[in-house]
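Researcher: I've got a protein sequence and the SMILES for S-adenosylmethionine. Could you write out the 3D structure of the bound complex as structure tokens? I'd like something to compare against our soaking experiments later this week.
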Amino acid sequence: MSSSNINTARERLVALYGEVSKHSAYQTIPDFVSRELGYQETIQSNWRGDRNRLDYILKKLSPAAGQRWGDFGANTGFFTYTLAHGFPQTHFTAIEANDKHATFQREIKAIFEVGNVDMLNKAVSFDDLPALPEFDVLLHLNVLHHAGADFDRQYVSGEADFPAYAVNYLRQLRATNRAMVFQIGSNLWGDKTHPLVASTDDDNKIVYVSKLITDAGWKIRHLAYAKAGSDEIVYQDIAPTLIDALNTPGVRPDAKAIADALAPFNLTQHVGEFYRRGLYILERA
Ligand SMILES: C[S@@+](CC[C@H](N)C(=O)[O-])C[C@H]1O[C@@H](n2cnc3c(N)ncnc32)[C@H](O)[C@@H]1O
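Model: Sure. Here is the predicted complex with S-adenosylmethionine in place.
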């Protein structure tokens, strides 16, 4: 790419990334884009990270040739484009409601001539789910708690509506996706005044979210939490015995088992709520 083309591409991406909206300034720029254009955005990685999530996901799942992966709520494309660049034989679909984020992704696709990504630029609702493509793996990260605000206002008017709605939603996703990587916040609409579970109540949160998942017929294959190391935050597996208990229908794991499993993560040390969210890898039960 000529230096004037690099400058033009960088300027366009910087302008699009800088458009302020509810979910702007969220993700890192994919490394290959950053390297080629000399452009990165600063994300407060002690509050929220995406590389560490991707590292964990790739330890558990590897995009195979011919597979179809989806990224629901793909934002500015960190996951979609990092994966698409690294795994050119796998097809990726980015699903993103926000026009500016979608345009940002389209720019990356055009500049780097990425052939294995398509884009659905739409606020996908519950009623749209059956018409989505079938994915081998669907990333569904930090979207569902925005139901009732960003989408599906007719179905979620308050916290009390959420569990039944979420189980139906997750059940529908189970019908068309073989595996799912799932993460969810503990407030409805991203609004701290509407907690689904108190943001500091990690023990009840793991039970609440896991029950939505298993009631919908998914099996928890892996579950990770963020752990602060000496210079970075990494996602690590929770004890498999707790996963077995969470997967057992109708049984709430005992309080000590939950506390013991979460203790090594020392979740209270994280500055915000984001790193207190579990990162789930699900398969059809
Ligand atoms: C909180 S961000 C999470 C981004 C990304 N999944 C992650 O975890 O890094 C939520 C993203 O989902 C998008 N979004 C929200 N509701 C959506 C919907 N119904 N359909 C498609 N995209 C949606 C938002 O525009 C935003 O980019």
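Model: The longest helix spans residues 3-18. The chain is about 35% helix and 20% strand.
Researcher: Great, I'll pass this along to the crystallography team.
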